[in-house]
Amino acid sequence: MQEPPAQEATNKEASNAPTAPDGAWIIDVRGLTKRYGARAVVDDVDIQLAPGRICGFLGPNGSGKTTTIRMLCGLLTPDAGEGTCLGLDLRRDALRIKRQVGYMTQRFGLYEDLSIRQNLDFVGRLFELPHRKRAVDDALERLGLVGRQHQLAGSLSGGWKQRLALAACLIHNPRLLLLDEPTAGVDPKARRDFWDQIHQLAAQGITVLVSTHYMDEAERCHELVYIAYGKVLARGTERDIVQGAGLHVAEITGTLSAAQDAALRAAPGVQSVAAFGTSLHVTATDPAALQAALVPLRNQSGLHVRPANANLEDVFISLIGRAKDNYGNG
Ligand code: ADP
Q: 56 and 117: one domain?
């Protein structure tokens, strides 16, 4: 992982106490639940987010992230739960919430045969902005799009399209951004630029909830919520989550036979076996169980086994394994 810029490191340090004075939470929801048929696809989810924070929303496909985000921005009515978004009641004020948050969906929804400026102008009309030209100018300026404003959206690369989409969801000057996998399918350089922009917006006091599958992006968030099968399995800073999981990890380099690999995965107490580059991470919460599982691999030529620190991905893989046992068939 790259070292984060100094400003970000400071933010992360300050992130250990994410408190907001009474009534000042930007998101404050409890017990959020959505059912489709008999299945709760979002099940009793609590989220509190203070101003200017960047919260990463992680979890496997189908775990309920989009559904949660759509409830937070007033597009879906929860079946249970309550709370506020931007101080507005999730049920009573859904329409006002919808108009006040910036929501970026996985599909950008831009008009390919309109220019960047025309797209932003169109979004400004939808929001019925009173000073539309100035809002468009500000959005172009904010996202560094002035030089390309007359270029057709359809001719832009993925990274520039994504930047236009971000400009579009900022046009009405929202204090909260809800971003649903905004960087899916975007190249690494554009993803880095995007995250620099997100940090600049947060420094201006904008609060961001962003769903992602990328661990390097998770590491750039002030705090994280990890969800699977509709339930929150972990929350807090990266450090809180890694320490809270209490995982012991061994790193194995060298090639295991199929039988060794299978035996390791089946060993009592082993929670996950996952490849990281050219090595394997084996995790367990019980250090004795981990050592016992590794005995057959010790002193074997070509294999090196050593202790390692748990990372976020180790923790998430282990959490999802446990969740599968608890909720997977429910
Ligand atoms: P994620 O964003 O984490 O991938 P989603 O919130 O999109 O997850 O979906 C959570 C679960 O709810 C999935 O199993 C999905 O198939 C189901 N789901 C989402 N929308 C509907 C719907 N309108 N009707 C029935 N099931 C739905």
A: yes
